[in-house]
Write a structure and sequence with these properties.
The complex is a heterodimer. Chain A is mostly helical. Chain A contains 27 helices and two strands. Chain B has a domain of about 45 residues. Chain B is about 75% helix and about 5% strand. Chain B has three helices and two strands. The relative contact order of chain B is 0.14. The chains are: A mainly alpha, B mainly alpha.
Chain lengths: ~700, ~90
């Protein structure tokens, strides 16, 4: 067995080595084709078809009819490769495309996501991964069911797993739709189903086994795609090809520039203040008009008409008449349109503030605001970290290694591979910001940099630039940048050919698909394994178990795609909420299950329901989407960090429930010993088959 | 299945290293994070220290914590004879 595993690992290394080489060659060939005049749209299709075809190919090759292969890839995934698969599983479209944008917009406070989504792996390593591997079943509710006994803990686990994973998977499919639509020109709705086909071909045939080997392939694509543009940009700006090492100095220059732009005494700062004042006035006028929209509309229209009449009556120059007529033509058609326009203009106030300091921690007007910002920053980090250590689709990955020893090593590789992307994202944000602050701001509207002009034309939601004060010079307050632009436009900013833009899109697609794969599998497995096999029909033959598992996967996938195509709002909030929910619902019961022998069924039931209950209660009371108001907040903690109250409630529930009921049976206590020691003499065997 | 003295010792050593590493994790994340404004004057590689820690330093510490834990526990398994056989 040992030698077989070793040969297997060598083969894998060889295959993926060839694969990486092949992929690089593919990109080079496309680059040559581009130089020969192939259009970007064709290149986009090439990437889409080639990568989805590749994932499908791996899926077909990994098809299986074996239960252990289907659920846990036969438990023979070496630590290194499981780390890559976990990295792809973990890093979603939000990490790949959204993260750098968030960091660009929010500076220091956005780093809560970088910390939260990496530090959580310390908790996975120290509290869960090795013990779950020793337990060696198929799903996370499995552990809850075996450790605490009875169907109630398992059922709560299934419900929690489905809630967290489903909200999360919708965001992924949404990302797939956006990327496919952008790079091929297909409609968003069609993009969703094309992506879905890519996801299904893979997981449907081979379950965890196919998903694992596809995720390794996807990791390689996404990390290569993510790294190239910032490296190039760093060379262009500083001459050094290691962006992570040199961006501190760029950050210093940005900080100096921020001071100049905020200083109304300097020439550039005075211009900025002028634009900000225009924005502020416009917003104030819109706000005033909105107090009585019907009257404001009638007055505004009458005034515009009067100006045209006056101009004509006073024999003004044709130019002035034209101007007045144009202003009348631009005036909203009816009161509703006017209201919509004013509501939009009211939002300009958000742009009228001074430039935010990128590097400053907990910026705020006074000490109270700074303290609140600090509390929220740290609370969000804790929720994201604990949530990371409780998301079923990640924990499940540590069932697939050959041993406890490799499970421990595998957490290291997982975080290492995740770290590569997460410590590059802040660098990317700073480098792009440097470019905007130094090479765009202060330039002339007549000669916009190519990438600015290009993106402003392609997608005004990502890049919007207009000369507010009419001086022909670009001020920072005149630029609006959408978060996703940072990653998507970097290849152009760095002066790379379009083929690299296609590569970045393929990377984003890989990130979204790989996460969606893992999540869909988690949901379908919770239903087929935990609900059907463990609770409804424990004697079901293997073939029927697999048939049910695959049917459910299909149904869940279609439902998820349907919900996504409705474009539900507040996706980012829902993703954040999934972390708080997982942290409050799962973490206390899982950790106590290993570290507290006395913890029992009532404790688990009470802990999980109390944790989830407090978390949901807080979100509903404080988040506008559910009809809550921010005034209900405790200590000013925002709804996304509801877990900060849910986690202690969960632990309290486990402790109280346990202490008021008898200690668990001897069998359960033996199970605890069993998971604590990688190998015991006369040990019981819990490994699922 | 009866746990021996040795087994108890293995578990308590595991708890000790877990507690120690958890403390380091807590310190770099929450203690350093709490004092971010106070530490802003210190500069590393051109960064203000708090920004550096949140963007890079703490991440490196996390990777190191997990690496060390895996190494320590895998050798502890062998020392106490609870390692998995070659199967």
């Amino acid at each position: 067995m040992a030698t077989a595993q070793k040969t297997f690992k060598q083969q894998l290394t060889k295959y993926y080595g060839f694969y990486t080489g092949g992929f690089v060659a593919f990109v080079i060939v496309l680059g040559i084709l581009e130089a020969m005049g192939v259009t970007p749209k064709v290149l986009g299709y090439c990437f889409l078809v080639a990568t989805i075809g590749l994932y499908a190919g791996i899926g077909v090759m990994s098809r299986t009819a074996d239960v252990s292969e289907y659920y846990v890839a036969g438990r023979k995934v070496p630590a290194f490769f499981n780390g890559m698969a976990t990295g792809a599983d973990w890093m979603s479209a939000a990490s790949f495309i959204g993260m750098a944008g968030t960091l660009y917009a929010t500076g220091y406070s956005g780093l809560a996501f970088v910390l939260g989504w990496t530090g959580g792996y310390c908790l996975v390593a120290l509290f869960l991964a090795p013990y779950l591997r020793k337990f060696g079943q198929f799903t996370i509710p499995d552990f809850l069911g075996a450790r605490y006994g009875g169907n109630i803990p398992r059922t709560i686990g299934v419900v929690a797993a489905i809630i967290c994973s489903f909200t999360y998977v919708i965001a992924q499919i949404y990302g797939v739709g956006i990327i496919t639509a952008r790079f091929t020109g297909l409609d968003f709705g069609i993009g969703v189903y094309v992506g879905l086909a890519g996801i299904l071909v893979c997981s449907f045939l081979g379950g965890m086994r196919a998903v694992t080997w596809t995720q390794v392939a996807q990791y390689i694509i996404l990390i290569v795609a993510y790294m190239i543009p910032p490296v190039w940009l760093a060379v262009k700006q500083t001459g050094t090809p290691i962006p992570q090492l040199v961006y501190g100095y760029q950050l210093q220059k940005i900080t100096d520039r921020e001071k100049v732009l905020n200083d109304a005494a300097s020439p550039a700062g005075a211009k900025e203040a002028e634009v900000r004042k225009l924005l502020k006035d416009k917003a104030a006028a819109a706000e005033a008009a909105l107090k009585d929209p019907a009257k404001a509309f009638a007055d505004g229209k009458a005034a515009a008409e009067k100006r045209v009449a006056d101009a004509k009556a006073s024999n003004a120059s044709p130019d002035d008449i034209k101007k007045a007529e144009a202003a009348l033509a631009k005036f909203p058609k009816d009161a509703d349109a006017a209201k919509a326009q004013w509501t939009k203009e009211k939002g300009l106030a958000a742009r009228a503030g001074p430039v935010k300091a990128h590097a400053e921690a907990f910026a705020g007007a006074d000490d109270a605001a700074r303290d609140k910002s600090r509390r929220n920053f740290l609370a969000l980090i804790l929720c994201l970290m604990v949530g990371t250590a409780a998301l079923p689709h990640i924990l499940m990955r540590y069932y697939t290694t050959p041993s406890v020893k490799e499970a421990r090593q595998s957490v290291f590789w997982s975080l290492f591979f995740i770290f590569l992307l997460y410590f590059t994202a802040p660098a990317l944000a700073v480098l792009v910001k440097y470019e905007v602050y130094h090479n765009v701001v202060g330039g002339s509207f007549a000669a916009l940099p190519g990438w600015v002009a290009n993106w402003a034309k392609v997608d005004p939601t990502l890049m919007n630039i207009s000369d507010w004060n009419g001086d022909g010079i670009i001020q920072l307050a005149e630029i609006v940048i959408g978060g996703d632009l940072i990653v998507l436009a970097t290849p152009e900013i760095a002066g790379l050919p379009y083929v690299i833009s296609g590569l970045v899109a393929a990377g984003g697609l890989a990130a979204a698909l790989s996460t969606a794969d893992g999540l869909l599998l988690t949901i379908a497995n919770a239903l087929s394994h935990d609900v059907y096999y463990k609770m409804i029909d424990p004697h079901a033959p293997t073939t029927r178990r697999l048939a049910i598992a695959k049917t459910l996967l299909l149904i869940v996938a279609v439902i998820a795609a349907y919900v996504t195509s409705l474009k539900p709002g507040n996706i980012l909030f829902l993703v954040g909420a999934a972390f708080s929910l997982a942290a409050s619902g799962f973490f206390p019961a899982l950790v106590c299950g290993v570290f507290w022998r006395r913890a029992n069924k009532l404790g688990a039931i009470l802990g999980m329901s109390l944790g989830l209950g407090v978390c949901i209660y807080y979100m509903v009371k404080t988040y506008a989407f559910f009809g809550g108001v921010a005034a209900n907040e405790w200590f000013g903690i925002s709804a996304i960090s509801a877990g900060i109250f849910g986690i202690p409630a969960g632990f309290l529930g486990v402790i109280i429930g346990t202490l008021i009921s008898p200690a668990p049976s001897k069998d359960v206590q033996e199970l605890v010993d069993h998971v604590r020691y990688p190998n015991l003499e006369g040990d019981i065997n819990t490994q699922g088959t | 299945m009866q746990l021996t003295q040795k087994h108890q010792e293995y578990w308590s050593r595991n708890l000790k290293i877990t507690a120690l590493l958890l403390f380091i994790w807590f310190f770099v994340t929450f203690v350093v994070g709490w004092f971010s404004r106070e530490l802003a004057g210190v500069t590393v590689l051109g960064f203000p220290l708090p920004f550096y820690m949140a963007a890079q330093g703490s991440l490196i510490v996390y990777v190191a914590i997990i690496w060390y834990y895996a190494r320590y526990m895998n050798s502890l398994d062998i020392e106490y004879g609870v390692h998995e056989g070659e199967e």
